[in-house]
Amino acid sequence: MRSAAKARSRQALLDAARELAAKEGYQACSVDAVATLAGLTSGAIYSIFGGKRQLFAAALADYWVLPSLHEVAEPGAPLQEVMYAYGQHYGEFMSGPLAVAAIDLGIEDVAHRRKHPQDDQHNPTSEISRFAAELSEYADAAGETLPLAPEELATVIDRSLGGLALARLQTNEPAGTLFGYVAASLMRGPA
Known about the structure:
Largest sheet: none
Shape: elongated
InterPro entries: Homeodomain-like_sf, HTH-type_TetR-like_transc_reg, HTH_TetR
Distance between the termini: 63 Å
Strand content: under 5%
Radius of gyration: 19 Å
Low-confidence stretches: none
Mean pLDDT: 85
Keywords: DNA-binding, Transcription, Transcription regulation
Protein name: HTH tetR-type domain-containing protein
GO molecular function: DNA-binding transcription factor activity; transcription cis-regulatory region binding
Organism: Streptomyces fuscichromogenes
Number of domains: 2
């Protein structure tokens, strides 16, 4: 019975955090405002999550995961087409207000991990490995060769599209089609 109440409280806090982050952004959200919207006390946030950063990390976890190639194309399609579609998908995914809040949180999280490396629970390596495996699968299915080793290419794509997402945060540019062009161009490899 008690675990069911805790699960409902947890979900209410996650929903409230997402709603406020979409309206106000991560930085402007307060623990008290999230708790009030959820119909709970701020103590519930600390009890369940440990603090604001951990609450929002859980609420915005979808934005810390690289989209899957399977979301945009079937294996066997030419890699440049797959990557163009992937880049556009990534650009659209990272254009909403929750994405902006997730980027803000990500920046704060990096700074926190530099100061407190013992708190690092985020493992981007597993995401890169998963994405690298998908790149290999798609290259094999298309009968094409990747321009770099899969892990290196996955890292380059992640950082390139992540950089564009940061640029969008600052300038509201670039448009989603540029994400597609960048991702597709990475399939050509070094000149």
